[in-house]
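Record 1 of the preview.
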Amino acid sequence: MIKPLFDKDNLKALDAISHAHLIAFAPYVWEASKLLKEEGILHIVEKANLNGITIEAVANQTEMSLYGVRILLEAGLGIGLVYRKIDHYFLSKTGHFFLNSPSIVVNYNFMRDVCYKGAETLGESIKNSKPEGLKTLGNWETLYEGLSEFPEPAKKSWFDFDHFYSDNSFDDILPVVFNSNPKSILDIGGNTGKWTLKCLNYNENIELGIVDLAGQLRVAKENIREAGFLNRFKPYEINVLVPENNLPKGYDIIWMSQFLDCFSDQEIISILEKCHEAADENTRIFINETFWDCQKYEASAFALQMTSLYFTTMANGNSQMYDSTVFFKLIDKAGFEIINQYDLIGYGHTLLELKKK
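->
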């Protein structure tokens, strides 16, 4: 049983005031933290280790003025990235994780390169149900249409973010998916083909199909060709949002990993209804998602809640990282029932196994 998250207001008043101040000054918190990292200041402090380091000594190792280093390190005190003893600065635990935690580095790069410039369009994006911030990267209706053409470094940071949170769950999930000895799997929203390649390598007899848009399908097909698996692979260029587009039938398993969170409530129902039409009574549908209410820690849930705002401003304007209670109602409306649920896989994934009612 996963404990409830965010069900108490348990901050002491002084801590709540401090947190509110952090929110009020958030733009400067971000800019100062970015400069402390990217100008190498935190790395210099980190190398000083147990001895600490003075502002003057840091300035001598950077191209920034003494004044610049001073105001940034003093800001770093309030942010919590460093602490000070007399005139020597030390890297805090928060600073250490900010620099070195793989998940935080991936999140930071994603925010910096993909989301940051478009973040101010949040209100406009909600009002218009469109990703108004996407224009900072290119001229597309949705992010997915332009993903294969993204400018760098946004393209690398997007794929690093996407793969970091999906790939780490795959090895744990494979035995569950293959437990029924399927002969064929349809991967909807296959992206670059990571899951498909995992399956093709895992079982020498399995056949895979990928449903996706042209740009992503082209990349996936090339990756699968290079791996030598084209004889067990079939691509389907299908936009699942077009009402008259149907899914291919005859697959033992329909797989969707971090795919349905890219759509609105009604669009999810529509896609699942297409799955319902393509499935028979023996077909199993597997959905791999990160639900914010199914996390073990509030920090994980927070990251997912903030990622919802990326979907609003940058992706399509109407999707999110879902609360499972909301998502499960959509599954029910589409005519499926959940027969198995596996929580806390990888970095907080939930694997759902569905069948037709």
